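Hi, here's the filled form for the chain we discussed.

Project: internal
Contact: R.S.
Residues: 476
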Amino acid sequence: MTDFEKVTTGMGEECGVFGAYDLKGEDVSSSIYYGLFALQHRGQESCGIAVTNTFGERKFNAVKGLGLVNDVFDEERLSELGGNLGLGHVRYSTAGGSRTENAMPLVINYIKGALAIAHNGNLTNAIELRQDLERTGAIFQTTIDSEVIAYHIARERLNTETADEAVRRAVKKVKGAYALVVTSPRKMIGVRDPFGLKPLCIGKRDDTYFLASESCAIAAVGGEFVRDVEPGELVTISRHGITSNKELQINPENEARCIFEYIYFARTDSKIDGVNVYHSRILAGKTLAESFPVEADLVVGVPDSGLVAAKGYSEATGIPYGMAFHKNSYVGRTFIKPKQSQRESSVKIKLNVIEEVVKDKRIVLVDDSIVRGTTSANIIKMLKKAGAKEVHVRISSPPFLYPCYFGTDVPSNEQLIAHSHTTDEIREMIGADSLGYMEVDKLKNMVGDLGFCDACFTGNYPMEVPGEDISHAFEK
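And the returned structure, exactly as it came back:
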């Protein structure tokens, strides 16, 4: 997510991982490039690709940098890579700052050879693990918790026969959220935390296997979705096929997928753990309509994450669905981060109201969240300035009350408008005629029988969490 978008939405996205292994030896660099394109929504601060040739020397070629996939890579830089096994990453910084050295994948050269790692998530015990490593002489090149995992894998590899066994032993030491793709010179390994907080899935195209954060990335490279990596599962892909280890798995009743994948993060054409994201957002809109009906002339969504829920609200109520905003798709990383006083103008650069659609109408405005409230207030002001008679706001998530420790950049309590204000106070502050949030006990409508994490709404974390915000604990 760009600095601009962080300001206007108050919400940080996660990261995206993508791995590819062509068993016949064909180059996978371009496939990884297009896979990352499909995951660009998950992180826009930095990206990278690292590849190796399983038929050649045990080394990795890597290219990474700050910016979008299209900023960092061109035909020439892709041609520098070349290899039949590799992985890529798009990053939004939830732990560690936005620096070039923090871009992933991380490539580690050690006595057993080399490995590359891409990580989506946040570790809750990263500080103590890093300090233990530093006391025994480890020197860190980055300020990200992913390097802690890489060091532990490398150390475990000294005492194990295989790379996948080293990964299994290493992740037993870490706590928190992770979807990992690790490549050794001969294997591609994927592992998902026991709670399933972060998504990871497997795909295949002819003789090429893929691991990806979302199924949409597998479709983007012409692959077939095979299945999700299960929570707590470690999969190893080699020239012998796929093997699975499920020693890390816990009772399915305790699994806790991030509910915000379904509300906001994931692309609408993805399917995660058997649940279609588009369908889950339609259900969210229908649930809001049941809980908070209102007489209105038009239902509209805030692009992009509010659009599908708005359609669901419309379908449930029979109120027509309309497009009230033009979104400028060309506001990229180069946009200067606005100061607090400039937030209103920054929203207008991103979104513009189509006056003919909203004039003299009672509007239901659907969005995925209210974090600080600034953006909502500005959008409502824009709608009323364009002639909307009433604006009734419906939010497809409950109010944010608690911080997230697992890789979602929810601001601290002091910055969360719902932490210190009632719903009616928030309604008044943002200028809405009415306000309805998704009720916590109805979130399950979106995902059926799947276990999910709703800690940012309830404070009920699926594991022990630190007593303080650790997202920038390694910053110097």
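Let me know if anything looks off before we file it.
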